[in-house]
Structures are given as C-alpha cells and as structure tokens.
Sequence to fold (364 residues):
Amino acid sequence: MNQPTYLFVVSSSNQMYSGTGVAIFDWIRFAKNNFSFSMLMDVENITNFTIARDFCLEQDLPFYPSPGMALSGCPDAGVKNVYTHLAHNQYDFIECVSWANAATNLNVIASKRGNSKLIFTPHSQPLWSLPNHDRYFMTSLGFKRTLNASDYIFLDSQSELNLIKDIDSKKIHCIPLGVDTDKYTVSAQIISNQIICICDCQEPRKRIDLLLSVFSNAYSQNNKIKLVLAGKGSDRVVIPDKISKAVKRLGYINNDTLVRLHKTASLFVLLSDYEAFGLPIAEALCSGCPVLLNRQDVLVDVFSDLPGVFFTDNLNIQETSHKLLKLVATSFDRANIAAEAKKKFSFSKTYGLKKSILLDKNQN
Fold:
C-alpha cells in the first residue's frame, strides 16, 4: 500500500531554527514511515531556507524552492510557486504552518485542488505579539480564511481556542508539541547555581530586559549564581557591567549543546510576555530541570499540572528574583519531573495522536 503523500508549504519567514521548525522536523522524523513527505518553501530568508533544505537533504525528502510572493499587509514572504506546483502534483495532505503566514496560506487555499486535505497548525498568537503589527492588516483575514478552509486544525493547547472563533469544533484537535524524550533525559551532573534561558533573544516579547533586571537583583544577594543565555541573538545582548562576569552569552547553539544545557542547569527561566507553546520549557522539564515562567494563560494551561513548574509576574522584579533564588537553592526530584513531563510530551503521546487522527480519517 502506498503511503499518503504530504506536502508542507512553509514561508521562509518562519523561524526554522526554533520552535516552528523543530516541530515540523520532529513530526516528519516521527511519521516518515507513514507518510511520503515533501516541502515547498520560498528563498527570501536564506537562513531559514537553508535549514529546511538541509533537513530535507538529510532525510532524503523532496524539497522545492520557490521565489517569494509578498502581499501587502501580510508579514510573511509568501511562496510564489504554489499554484504551478499544485497544478502538476497531487497530494493527499497539504499542511500550512503559522497563523502569521497570511500570504502563503491564502495562496495555498486558492491553489489547492482535487481531494487534498488541508491541515493547519497555526501556533496562534495575538496580533500585538508581532513587531510592527499595525502594518499587517491582512493577517487576521488570512488566519480566518485558513481556519475555515482547513480539514484538520491542530492546536498546541486548549487556551489557543480563545483565539479561534466560529470554527467547526469537529476538525479541531488540541495536541501539545512533542519532545524527543530519547535525547532529553535526566543527568546526574547538575551545575549548581546555573540558570539558563534559551530563546530567540532578538524578539522583544521574550523580555530579556526583564530577565537581566531580575538576575541583577538576585546576583546582588547571591554572587554565586550564573546566567547562561542561548539562542539566536543571545551573543548580541548587552549585559550591564555589574553582572557581566556572571552572564555567559552563547549565541545560536547546536542540538548537542542545547540538550546538555537542559540536562545540567539548576533552573530554566523564561519571562516572555507571550508564548504560543514554549517548546524549550517542555524540553527542560523532560530533562528534569525545574522552570520559572511568566504567568500567562497558555503556559498555565500547558504546564501547571506538572511538577517542577513555577510561575511569577515578570513585571515584579523583586518577587521574581526572590523566587529565582529560592528555586536555585532547592533540591528537586528531577527524575519525577522528567517522568511526568514525558507522559505528556513524548512523541508517542503527541505526534502519535496526530498520526492516528490523520490515518484513521484518511481511511474512511
């Protein structure tokens, strides 16, 4: 029996080096024995394009480059060749990714033909979370049209439903993003007093400014603590002189370093104003590392039922620094933290469910 054919149409505006890309790549690795995957992407952002192309080469998957086709009022680069590609190639499934890919997703809707089933994984966020969001007046319309046109909508959390209105509930499935729990495991080698923050430090909503204020306040009370910043742009973060010796900036890191940081840190901290899911949080927990997070509905929904998860108000510097110091000094049952997180985020619990939904419906 032939595998169902499955095309990802992805704008190179997507951060393939972070959560969006990791989720796509992990899903493909998990399900490539069940679906015949391929990818179509524009060439406008060479960094993201290269990451996606190299992944497809590594996995021996067809990869189709395209010029961009930007539309006024849309934040993404668009994918010009969607129409011609779909005119010559039939797919059982076509997946669109990201609520912000208005140009790309509208082009897919206009170009899709035959019996192809449209999958949408929006990783929804409020419009204000986009820099210069006032310019992107087409985003909400593109989001709504893609939701209506989709046969399957996969949401990262129940809270994401708050951003989706008047959509047939039968096609909505709330499934967390998955973590490779064969890689993210508990280590006996913990670096005491080491706090990590792993994110795209170029994004203002990640609030690295607040994290540095919190750490500076905590450091004045305990000069043994250390902060490690990792992720795109972390090497360009300006560190105040009084904490410069206690802060290490790693920049963009490879996967081995990422795994090692999660396994050995005393505490993971993320004080973002908004997260659509927060994959590094799940990775930290699956490694047994406790986390301190800004309290927001999505993160409470996804993570509050797990051990090792603590919340704060990111604008309250004193309270947050107090919690940080207390947590760094606490001895946690890291094996239990990891075991409970694995029950929720392992591939079998997440992408396994997505696979069964698509295959079961496809066979009816």
Observations:
- The mean pLDDT is 95.
- The chain is about 35% helix and 15% strand.
- The CA atoms of residues 69 and 213 lie 41 Å apart.
- Residues 46-59 form the longest helix (14 residues).
